[in-house]
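Researcher: Going back to the complex we discussed earlier. I've cleaned up the inputs and rechecked each line, so this should be the final set. Can you rerun the prediction on the complete assembly and write out the structure?
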Amino acid sequence: MGSNEKNTGIKLEYEILKDDFARAGEASSGIKKVLRQLGIDSSAIRKTAIATYEAEINIVIHSEGGKILVYIKPDKIEIIAKDNGPGIKDIDLAMQKGFSTASNRVRELGFGAGMGLPNMKKSSDEFYIESEMGKGTTVKMIITL
Amino acid sequence: MVIKDLKDRFHFKLLAGEKGLDNEINGLYCCDLLSWVMSHAKDGDAWITVQTHINIVAIASLLNLACIIVPESIEVDSDTVAKADEEGIPIFSTDINSFKIFTKFYEAGMR
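Model: Rerun complete. Updated structure for the full complex:
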């Protein structure tokens, strides 16, 4: 799924489907494999793995589907997780540890602990989130190398 | 401690991931909240969980966990087993509970 772009590093792109629990984790696993092959430092790989996994699970659980884009550059890894809605009503509340709107079914599987966004923020060096109701949510994370 | 000790010394039943058996175990971790595991489990930990769906393999693989241990004879989904074989993540099953699993590791010298 990777493609080389001149001077801008490597771009990876993954489509994430709504409610696709069986495949959830495949995008983040794929990203991790590429980083390993590139010989990226193991702590940056761990941070990227956590950030992309949580983003992927969030898209599966909470959204209408979306995509994850990763740009691997010489000095940083940029991750963009973008979904097609429904959007987050109160971002400050969503960022609070333990807050979750996940269903009981999802919680029984061990998801929906209200730690996804906090984990993403904690594992990235820069974290930006914007959301519009009815349109969708975009999270941008940067991990410096 | 090496992963295959769980089979040879503790007699845990290996369900999947035979090709990962020679790896080292550095620690033991027990939790069923996946995001919590994601942010707290460490490289080389053996992970005890009652979750048995396919996603546990992704977590173990992303965090370089040594293996997954499913306690109290909980049945593991067949697609989880297949994925673990593909990724080389050993999954063990045992009839004992988490406390007794910790005890075994302690008695075997893990600190």
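Model: Worth noting: The mean pLDDT of chain B is 97.
Researcher: Good, that matches what I expected from the previous run.
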